[in-house]
Every structure is written in structure tokens, then in C-alpha cells.
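User: Batch of two.

Assistant: Item 1 of 2:
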Amino acid sequence: MERPDTLLFTLTGRDRPGVSSQVFSTLAGFGVDVLDLEQIVLRGRLILGVLTSVPDNLPALQGAIATAAAELGMNIEIERGTGDTKIERTGRCHVTVIGVPLTAAALAGVTQRIREAGANIDRIERMARYPVTAFELALSGADVDQLRAQLAVLAAEQSVDIAVQPASLLRHGARLIVMDVDSTLIHGEVIEMIAAHAGFEAEVAEVTERAMRGEIDFEESLRARVALLKGVPASALDEVYNAIELNPGARTLVRTLRRLGYRFAIVSGGFSQITDRLAQDLGIHYARANELEIVDGVLTGGIVGEVVDRAGKARALREIAAEIGIPEEATVAIGDGANDLDMLSAAGLGIAYNAKPLVRSQAGTAINVPYLDTILYLLGIKREEIEAADAAAGVVTPAPPI
């Protein structure tokens, strides 16, 4: 019989303090090397896997580890292996699944598509249980583009959000986050709020909707809408700003990523008179938007300078990334309208946030739950880590339901 090169010990049972200590103390008595190690605790149940070299006195080690497991009240399995213990992991990627709720049927579909793609699930971690349920699956052996296309169809069928990202060192470094403003960072459209002061809210809203769906040219539509604002007093902008509602999770998203050294930019087809104040309020580093022309305290119905349109948003992302020395692959863009598509495409990770159908269909990743901080889970940050950092800083967060 061929002598084994490795031993895999798998212990399962009720978790309690001292399990790992007793196991490794037992192994230490036989002078083995630890080649691999994994441990998870799920609802108080421990699974501990230890891959070791083989000692000279193999029967004695098997007996000792079995005794240790019995004393701990745990089950033990011992597998012998031969050959190279290193597994080459290619086609590595992260799949994030988000649902409200997240059903077994949705997860069954995800795992089936992964199996059909010939990929292997190496690890599963829960990212959040409230206000959404989110899991991250680490895969190997995947064709990322093929898997993304298959899971996009499943996401629509099961009404869940699924993001597929290649595993990359960039995921662990500081990145640039570039966000749209209207209907992304904030609820609603600023231009419609201003138009209400001129009595043209309905007319402006109709044109805005068509522009966001990509049915009409953005710059043309913007100039036509702004022309309707002629005569509105500049003081109305203060009223509009005070009425703005941030989308849920906006402050948490910015606060958390700033702690990690991320840089933020808001790039908007809206107006600098609003976006500059938003940037100052939230601690956002850069802001690009259109400037409303104001003469003698009144809006003229015109725009000063070049319009920030679809191409302008992508250009702003590239310029800001170059200014701070961050590669485009390390940028994240978030938007909801057709004028965000170039920006989403230019970014390393483009996220359609509660977007129009056209945008969802063309973006690599879509989030359809109304929580901006859900994006943190796509970056590998867990809800528990966010709340722990907030608690340490004295930030009070709502308690999850029991």
C-alpha cells in the first residue's frame, strides 16, 4: 500500500473555547507540518479542517487525535492523500448574491449555474442579514464573462441581485468611487424640484424621463429644460437643497469607504449650485456638474460653460482617476440613467443602481434594492464590520430585527 503524503483531519461538532488549542497541541506531539487550514462556525456548529504532513508513527497520531475529539465531544474524520497537495486555482472570481428575501430557490439556481459552468465554490461567506440578505461565493475554474451572462438571466428570473467580479488585488486597495447624483445619491431629480418653482414640473419631468431612458440627446434635453427655469429666483436653490433626501445608505457608504482611504467624486448632469454643497456636506472629494447661469439673483435659463453629458461623465472619471494616480481598473462608477452608460463602461466596476431597463441590460452589475450601502458588500466589506467601525466612532445604527 502506498504511504500517504498528507492527512486531512475534519472535526465537526458544537463549538466551544479550546477546541483548536487541544487539536494543535495533540498534533504538535507528533512533529507534523500544517499544510492547510480552514475553520467555520455556523450557528454554534464548528467545522475545522487541518491538512498535515504524515508522521513516522501514523497509528499513534490517529489514535491520539481520535481521543482528543472524543474528549471534546466532536466527530472526527481522517482522510489519507498522496501526491501534490497544492491546487492551482484559475478562473477565480467573487459572486455576490443579494435578496430581500433571499430564497432557497434563488441560491439553488445560482449554485446550479456555477456547476453547469464547470466552476467550483471554494468558500461562502455571509456579508449581511439586514436590511438585505447577502452572501459572497469565492469561485475557481470560472469563465467570468460566461458566468456573468448566465447569472444575469437568473437574477431577473428570481428577482435578486447578482454581481460577478474577477478576483483581483485591486479589490483590497483604495479605489475611486464616482457617483451620479439625481436618483442615485439622492432621491428624485433636482431639475424637477427647481421647475416646480416655475410651474413647469410636469413638463420637465416628462423630458427628464425620456432623456434617462436614452430616447433623446441629453444635452439637447438639458438646455430645453433649463430654458424653462428662466426667471426663477436663485434663492429657490436653497429651498431645493434643504428639501433633498439622500437615498438610504448614502452616508454609510461614504463614511465607511473614506475610513478605508477611498476617494469619492460626484459627477452629475445636474447643477454645481447643488452638487458642491452635497460634496461638502458628505465629505466627497470631487464634484463635477453643470453651472446654472444667474444674473442679478435670477436664473437666466442658460448654462455657463460646457455641458457635463454622457461623454463628459466618462471623461471626468478618467481625469479624476489620473489626477489622484488611481488606475481606471480600480474605479467604481454608480448611476441609473442612459447618460451614465459611458461612465459605467469606463470604470473597473460599473454598477447600475435602481436603473432604467436600458442601463440594467448594458451594465456589468445591477443593484435593485433601495440601499446604497449594499455596494459595500460587492467590495468584500461585511455588515458586521461596518457596524463595528461605526460603534467605535460613536455612530448609532438601527438595530436589526430579531
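Item 2 of 2:
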Amino acid sequence: MRRLCISAILTTMSSLSLFAQKAAWCDNIRVSGFAIAQYQWSNPKDNEANTFNLRMARVALDGKVAGDFYWKTQIQITGNTSTLASSPRLVDLFVEWQKYKAFNLRLGEFQVPFTFESPIHPIDVGFMDNGQAVLKLTGYSDRSGMHSSNGRNIGIMAQGDFLKNANGRNLLHYAVSVVNGQGINLKDVDQRKNLVASLWVMPIEGMRIGVSGWEGSYSRKGNWTDAQTVDKRNGVRSLPQHRYAISGEYASEGFTFRSEYVHSTGNAFAKTMTNTNDGSASDCNLSAIGNKADGFYALGIIPVIKNKVNVKARYDLYRNNAEWNSAKTFYEAGADYYFTKNLRLSAEYALVNDRNLNKHNYSIINTELSIKF
């Protein structure tokens, strides 16, 4: 089935490329993508791992229509076809009106404007994955129980840059979106939309300082047991989600320094949804992790040989109940080697302190070969 899906995707891409050669209105259509192959070793007690892995691959089409309209569609290929979390699946499909720099209007499925790191290209993040707070609080492996959605949702968004300085560089950026709040490829359940917005200032070239917020809910339709009355209930259960992030970044001449604090208030479902046809989709019981979580990371990437060799380090903390007894901390260091601009080998060592485990400390060695096209 997986081979069939991949073949169908490649055939569709090929057909669209041939069509683009014939149709003048879309003669600027582009095909792009990337792939990441991974080797990882780790030694948490009783859960050791030593494996090669095809971490992720994406293929995207984008272009412009009628001058002012930009469109994009992107498919992610990982795992098998049986679950929402790892199936070949659509992650982007939107159209954006781009007539004015200060006001662009996007409609479809897209990356929501929450945190600086979430919208960054997976290869350009610089480490083995996003920071834990980004993964758990922006819709990747979200603590709420939402299926893996790569920080994306379905809805509408306005964004733009404005307030030019004397050199013509914009000093402010904003983005405001109204989305379903259910993740990718699913309709709304509780008919309550989520508001996700960000605002940042760019005081000097390469620097941005900003805040973002998420106000809404995540919902399921199914069954649960009331914790106080022990009554069996069914219907739609909606869990409010209130989140904010404080972010800062400086990126210039190959140097990158970025740090973010993310906080969440809101309960979670006990089981993460992995398949719309199994019990996880209708299990509305609550998780025992409570209604608060937070996380913080700080990283630096420094070029040793420009466009050839980088060294890097990251401190990455996440607390799944906002208390220190649940803290999981990564102390990471590594390096990147660029064969070409689009072909990179990365190696990284992480010492992990996880207070949720009986034996807190373990190590991870991660290497990745990534290519863009």
C-alpha cells in the first residue's frame, strides 16, 4: 500500500509538471522537496534503540496564478498508510492573495503563526528535531492528544510586514489566523474556532523579538467517564487550550541564536489520536498530566567554515505538568558538514535528564543525511 501511495504521488507530480509546460497561466509552477535519512542510538534503561530510519520526505508544488495569488500544496511521506500520525498525507494546501506587502490573505491548510521555530524548514531547524515545547505545544506530537499535524491547521490567515525604517526595511510583522483547532485534514468538531496570532519587531537586520498566542479548544466526539460522578457520558467533549510564547532570534551570516519560552493551560485527552477509525478517535477520557505545561529552549549555531562546517549547541527543557518533577532536559552539541548547499551531513550528541523515568539520565547519538531539491 505504501509503495502504491508513493507511486501515485510521483505520477501526479509528473503529470502536473507536464501540464505546467503547456499552460501559460501556470508556467511558473515549481516542484521542490526534501528527504532526511537518519541513524540514531539511545540507551534509556529497558528501552534501548539502535536503528537506521527514513525520518521524513516531502514533495511540494507551488506557483502563482493571475499575478497576485500564490498557491502551494505539499505532501509528507513517512511510515505506513494506517495512521494519521505516519501516513503519506497532505500537510499544506492553500491559496494566498499577495497584492500588498502589509496585508496578505491565506485560505486553506497551513502553518499556524505560533512560535518562531514551528514554521522553520525541518532541515533549517538545525537539530535532530524541533524543541520539545514546540513539538508538544504547537501541534506536532501535541500534549492535547491531537494527531500529528506538523504545526498546521485549516482556516484563514492575514499577515504582513509594515512600518519601514529609513533604509526601507520593515520593522513589524503580524499574523492573525482563525482555524478549526483539530489539526490537519479534519473538520471542526465543537464548532468553536481557534484564534492563533503573532506579532514581532525587527529592530536591526537579522533580529526579531516577538510574542504569539493561541486561544481555542481541541475536541472529540465520543465517550468518557465523569471523574467525580463516575457516570458514563457521550457526546462532544471540548478541552479549552490557552497558550502563549515569547520568542527571540538573531540570524545573520550563518550565525543563528534563538530562544523561546512556551506556556500552555488546558487539559489533555488520555490517548493520542492515531487513526480516525480506532478507539483513540472517540476516547474522551482525560489524561492524568493535568492542565498546565511549559518549556524553554536556547540554541546557537556558529559557522566554523562558512557554507561548509557549523558547530552547534542547544539547551532544551519541557515540563509536561509545569512542575520540576516532570522535567525532561536535553543538553545537545553537534556539527554539520555541507557537501553542497543542498546536501548536508549532521551529527549530534545529547545527554538527556528525564525525571519521569526511574533512571533519569541517558544518551542519544543522532546522525542525519538531508537533501533538498
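The longest helix spans residues 2-22.
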